[in-house]
Design goal:
Largest sheet: 6 strands, mixed
Shape: globular
Structural class: alpha/beta
Number of helices: 6
Distance between the termini: 38 Å
Helix content: 40-55%
Order of helices and strands: EEEHEHHEHHEH
Low-confidence stretches: none
Length: 139
């Protein structure tokens, strides 16, 4: 079910799979820090409303470079809620833009709990497979 759509991204929720999906668009090239932060508040609102176990960020079209100041803001204001809401896994389909990808990785690496549950992928198929695989239980 689509829960958000604008020129920069679309968010959908699959309640059956407990999966929040975000697709970023190349228009993110025109984002400024304030727009990115405002969008992050919407993302957090959706996390709180739907409380998914899994998050899939398809950043293939993401063209925004997250500044060090915004990276710090995310770590202080958004990431603590990821842990509080018990997000189990975050899969990121990497941006084709090298600087955008690097800024995303740097942001994730600044928060140990978030970095422990996050994996990066070149394509969405492998990202979904990893998110939805059941953990093997050994006795």
């Amino acid at each position: 079910m689509k829960i958000h759509n604008n020129e920069w991204s679309t968010r959908t929720i699959n309640n059956r799979l407990s999966l929040l999906y975000v697709a970023a668009y190349p228009a993110t090239l025109r984002l400024v820090d304030e727009d990115f932060i405002n969008g992050s508040y919407g993302f957090l609102k959706d996390l709180r409303s739907h409380q998914p176990r899994f998050v899939l960020l398809n950043l293939r079209g993401f063209q925004f470079t997250i500044s060090p100041e915004v990276q710090d803001w995310l770590v202080e204001n958004i990431f603590p809620f990821m842990e509080t809401l018990k997000i189990e896994k975050v899969a990121i389909v990497t941006s084709l833009d090298a600087l955008s990808h690097l800024s995303v990785e740097q942001t994730i690496e600044e928060d140990l709990p978030t970095s422990k549950i996050t994996r990066y992928f070149q394509g969405e198929t492998n990202a979904r497979r990893w998110l939805l695989e059941e953990e093997a239980i050994t006795v």
